[in-house]
Design brief:
Elements: E1 2-10, H1 17-27, E2 35-41, H2 45-51, E3 52-60, E4 65-71, E5 77-84, E6 91-94, E7 97-100, H3 101-109, E8 120-125, E9 129-135, E10 140-142, H4 143-150, H5 155-174, E11 177-178, E12 187-190, E13 196-198, E14 205-206, H6 224-229, H7 234-251, H8 259-264, H9 275-284, H10 295-298, H11 302-305, H12 353-356, H13 372-385
Antiparallel strand pairs: 1-2, 3-4, 4-5, 5-9, 6-7, 8-9, 10-12, 11-14, 12-13
Helix pairs in contact: 5-7, 7-9
Length: 386
């Protein structure tokens, strides 16, 4: 399917009427009654080959491969995700056609309804898979790599990022969507203006008032109630993952690695994390979900309204989006996403990211660090990892 502007198409309700009822109660009206300005034209995989050129692998996750790509007609950079149908666990509907839930959610959030979510451009169905085409900023990196490079984010920058993510998540809930895998690897940082985009809705679904019994997100970001009971509510799980994310930004790593640690909720901070920031993290990471801060109350916390005397310096770099070099035996497979005769073995880019963050920091020169508190945080980070 090719998505563009200027024609009326109604997004069709999912088959689960209970979920639709829950969304209706949440929002006061049915989210799927909205008419979306689109042109929908049927398109085969051959048409995809004409419209896009596929480049190297950008990343690999549990649901599929993501390639760098270019739109042929204007050279626009895109991200192309290839997902096998057998790996799709949840489905949605657009104009009566069954599509992966990820496509359905991105479609619902599109047309600039939620600016902090990656934009869906096209999608195509093959016999055994779907191809999802999304926007790709010219100069960006995921938040995991951004934090790894900086070791620890200054609270001023962490605050700027966290506000953006919370606002995006709250906007998603207004459209009845829950991401369920909020983490640094699923957030893109535009290095030209420090704007964030939430990506990879492969674990997402429709928000509902009752509990979920399936969780496909990242285990170390999962809430304790899921580990203990096999059930969780959307808002509580979302707030928990936001707490993990904020801790990750200001401390340089996630707080928990095992189920026991998650269920105990014991937090250890470096002394350079401010009291207000620690308080907000603790409110998000309350083991008792009833004591956990509500999503709508997060942005009113004092730490997020603290004014700073210095503006965040805009990050400028000359390098474009880092794209790994993928060895190939031939070039005639450049434009065959997911084809059985692909001759390259994609690197395991995303699978070992947690271990990458654990490498010890060496040779920190205080004179080379712009802010001495960052140097101290790095030294503490080194000591903790030793």
């Amino acid at each position: 399917m090719m998505l563009e502007d200027n024609s009326d198409v109604t997004a069709t309700q999912p088959s689960d009427s209970k979920e639709v009822d829950d969304i209706t109660k949440l929002k006061g009206k049915n989210a799927f009654d909205k008419v979306v300005k689109r042109i929908m034209t049927s398109s085969t995989s051959d048409k995809f080959e004409e419209l896009y050129k596929v480049g190297p692998v950008l990343g690999k996750g549990g649901f599929g491969l993501v390639y760098a790509g270019l739109r042929t007609r204007d050279g626009t950079k895109v991200a192309i995700k290839h997902v096998a149908k057998m790996k799709i666990k949840e489905w949605g509907y657009i104009s009566g056609s069954r599509v992966p839930m990820e496509v359905c959610l991105l479609y619902l959030l599109g047309d600039s309804r939620v600016n902090g979510v990656v934009k869906l451009i096209d999608y195509f169905e093959r016999d055994d898979s779907f191809i999802i085409v999304m926007e790709r900023p010219d100069l960006c990196k995921d938040l995991f790599d951004f934090i790894t490079e900086k070791k620890i984010l200054e609270e001023q920058l962490a605050r700027k990022f966290f506000i953006q993510i919370v606002e995006t998540v709250m906007a998603c809930t207004k459209f009845g969507v829950i991401h369920r895998d909020i983490k640094d690897e699923n957030i893109l940082v535009d290095l030209t203006d420090l704007k964030l985009k939430l990506i990879d809705f492969g674990s997402g679904t429709f928000l509902k008032n009752n509990s979920y019994t399936k969780y496909d997100g990242t285990r170390v970001y999962s809430p304790p109630e899921w580990i203990q009971t096999g059930r969780y509510e959307g808002e509580g799980a979302t707030v928990w993952s936001l707490g993990i994310l904020l801790y990750d930004m200001v401390c340089g790593d996630i707080p928990f690695e095992t189920d026991d640690q998650i269920c105990s909720g014991e937090l250890k901070f470096s002394f350079l994390v401010s009291d207000q920031c620690r308080e907000l993290i603790r409110k998000c990471l309350q083991v008792d979900v009833k004591e956990r801060v509500k999503l709508n109350d997060v942005l009113s916390h004092p730490w997020l309204s603290t004014s700073e005397c210095e503006e965040i310096t805009k990050i400028t770099q000359t390098k474009s989006l880092p794209i790994p070099c993928v060895p190939t035996r031939a070039t005639n497979n450049l434009n065959s996403v997911g084809s059985s005769n692909t001759s390259c073995t994609p690197p395991q880019l995303a699978l070992m990211k947690t271990n990458e963050r654990k490498c010890v920091i060496h040779d920190i020169e205080i004179s080379d660090i712009k802010h001495s508190d960052i140097a101290l945080k790095q030294l503490i980070f080194e000591k903790k990892r030793n």
